[in-house]
Write a structure and sequence with these properties.
Order of helices and strands: HHHHHHHHHHH
Helix content: over 70%
Radius of gyration: 24 Å
Distance between the termini: 66 Å
Structural class: mainly alpha
Mean pLDDT: 88
Number of helices: 11
Length: 211
């Protein structure tokens, strides 16, 4: 939810931003594209980072970075600064989905990953849907610059909770019963059915007899 709320702030604030910074629709379009470019370019590197150091540290780091650039968006003084901040914001957000996928793999058996990913993706849509009414109120109450700063601060609060409560593996979490840990470990990979050797033997004998 936080991922998408932070993403749509700039769309909700378009009129205020373009009016104060004197941006054309074309320039604002470049700003939106800069986010998408950063997001696309850093998907693979951020996924590699999650594999290397784990989702706990990866998500904590990238949410700190993207929250920083969310807040810095409120300090933009012109087209180029806004373009740069949004590109870097997109580059930081790129790690969210790969790191979440790594966390789901580590914490859930195969049979439960579908529903977990469904909940995660539902959160992105709920975040986008709820963001616009709430952001409209914030923008009219605080202004666009302060709204970006507030959203950046919310991200930092999330990081504190995430880093305190989450561990990369259920084996390392103080609140996990041993039986559940073993169930998760056993269910991380799909079991491969063993071949029926008796049927294979009969098949080979039949083939030899027919020949």
């Amino acid at each position: 939810m936080l991922l998408y709320v932070d993403r749509v702030v700039i769309s909700a604030a378009k009129e205020q931003i373009t009016g104060e910074l004197v941006l054309s629709d074309t320039q604002f379009g470049w700003v939106i594209s800069a986010f998408a470019l950063g997001y696309a370019l850093f998907q693979v590197p951020s996924g590699q980072l999650a594999d290397r150091i784990g989702p706990r540290k990866t998500l904590a780091a990238i949410v700190i970075i993207w929250s920083g650039f969310t807040a810095l968006t409120g300090a933009a003084w012109g087209f180029l600064s806004l373009l740069l901040f949004r590109f870097l914001f997109g580059a930081a957000e790129a790690g969210a989905m790969p790191a979440c996928a790594k966390a789901v793999y580590s914490w859930l058996p195969t049979a439960e990953r579908g529903i977990a990913n469904g909940i995660n993706l539902s959160g992105t849509r709920v975040g986008a849907a709820l963001a616009l009414p709430g952001l409209a109120w914030m923008l009219s109450t605080f202004g666009w610059r302060q709204t970006f700063v507030i959203m950046g601060a919310v991200g930092l609060l999330w990081v504190i909770a995430w880093y305190a409560l989450f561990r990369d593996r259920p084996e390392d979490h103080w609140g996990m019963p041993e039986a559940e840990v073993q169930q998760i470990i056993a269910g991380r990979t799909l079991s491969t059915p063993k071949a029926d050797t008796s049927k294979q033997g009969a098949s080979r004998q039949g083939a030899c007899g027919s020949s």
